[in-house]
Amino acid sequence: MEPAECTNNQSNGNYGEDIIGWFEDVTEKAGLVQTQTLRKILEQNCSVEYLKQWLGDIKIQEVDGFVLESLYTSLVPLASHADLEPYIHRIANGDTGPILTQQPMTTLSLSSGTTDGRQKYVPFTHHSAQTTLQIFRLAAAYRSRVYPTREGGRILEFIYSSRQFKTKGGLTAGTATTHYYASQEFKIKQEKTKSFTCSPEEVISSGDCKQSTYCHLLLGLFFSDQVEFITSTFAYSIVQAFITFEELWKELCNDIRDGTLSKRINLPKVRKAVLDIISPNRHWLQKSKLVARAWKIWIGLV
């Protein structure tokens, strides 16, 4: 089930309370919601190849909700990725038929490969992307309730995209975070939560972690009076950023003072994107309060 408020153009505060209210309502009746969700999934996808082999010609619309739940668990076996992998490979190779879902697959995400040492394809539809966006909206709403932020503030995000590639069938493949940071949903998330990342897309998707980290740090300091909080997909990314900050702080200060960008940043698109943002501030180093505030941002999270 999805909150109706997702499509409304509301202020950040009202929207946050709306989505929290929706979430707490559905979690109080989780059993019923699960049954309704199962029905919705089966009504939309009962005729796809994978489910049809188990459900046959059962008319889902005519089956009572609780009977449907028992019917589903008795007929459709638990499945692992290995059971679905042949179907996923057909999709990756260009089969556009309704194999696993009626909605067409838009991208294939790569797993971390921690299960058996190899990365696996995880199919994503438009609904998958919308669900990801909803999770971020909900998290932002709860965070803002405990730690209120200024509307229009900035987030110092240590986030990184790897390179995407095309499968034999023409689908875009890459990590889930890569897809998300390159998506329209990521831009919508910033608008909905009224918090904007310090770094442009070129920095996030540079493909060079060290160069991206330097630029994240530089832009975080440049926008330090606007930064509301610091975040990252993985905690170790923040630790690595602290280490880089300790090593290169003089160089970062020089770049802020002069409005320049270190020669260590040699990717043309990244250089242009960052230089289009920063400007010289020759009094920056004398602004002790600004420096102290920026330093507290880093140290406060250690």
TrEMBL record:
It comes from the Eukaryota. InterPro entries: GH3. GO terms for cellular component: cytoplasm. GO terms for molecular function: acid-amino acid ligase activity. Pfam families: GH3. This is Jasmonic acid-amido synthetase JAR1. The lineage of its organism: Eukaryota, Viridiplantae, Streptophyta, Embryophyta, Tracheophyta.
